[in-house]
Write a structure and sequence with these properties.
Structural class: alpha/beta
Strand content: 15-25%
Low-confidence stretches: none
Strand order of the largest sheet: 3-2-1-4-5
Mean pLDDT: 94
Largest sheet: 5 strands, parallel
Oligomer: single chain
């Protein structure tokens, strides 16, 4: 039986923290679906297709990792793709309460779906997409925080 995990998120933009969790989650599952959530309530910096392409470039050609977009409930999407695990990153204690509530709701909606929390590498603990966007927006160097393709995309977005 193939263990399928979903790593959901907005990935706007993908960071080295995301890349770290994707690679490390491969120890837990045979296949990882990096699922870009479409949230109509948010105004993303990058369109979904560009985020998917940036993720593909960042992670490379590992056949165990696929990239998809989804909307609606994660539990419904997980059932549709036969996933049994959800991968989530916890950077700080402040992340825990929200993630815990989401994990319990997903379990309520899909009882066989387990959520696994991964702690980022220590040098990436502070990193978030919103922080990367903010630094890049004001001309800061984000090259140590993201793949070069993402850094280029941010530069084109903020300094055309």
């Amino acid at each position: 039986m193939t263990r399928i995990a979903i790593y959901p998120g907005s990935f706007d933009p993908p960071t080295k923290g995301h890349e770290d969790l994707i690679r490390r989650s491969l120890v837990l599952a045979d296949r990882v679906i990096v699922a870009v959530a479409i949230n109509v309530a948010k105004q993303p910096l990058f369109p979904v297709e560009e985020r998917l392409e940036l993720l593909r470039t960042t992670v490379g050609d590992d056949p165990r990792v696929t990239f998809e977009a989804f909307d609606g409930l994660l539990a419904v999407y997980a059932r549709r793709v036969s996933a049994t695990l959800v991968i989530r990153g916890l950077r700080a204690v402040s992340d825990f309460e929200y993630e815990f509530q989401m994990a319990l709701m997903n379990r309520q909606l899909h009882p066989s779906l387990e959520t696994v929390f991964l702690v980022p590498s220590v040098d990436l603990t502070y990193l978030s997409s919103s922080l990367v966007r903010e630094v890049s927006r004001f001309g800061g160097d984000v090259s140590a925080l993201v793949h070069p393709a993402v850094a280029d995309a941010l530069t084109r977005r903020f300094r055309p």
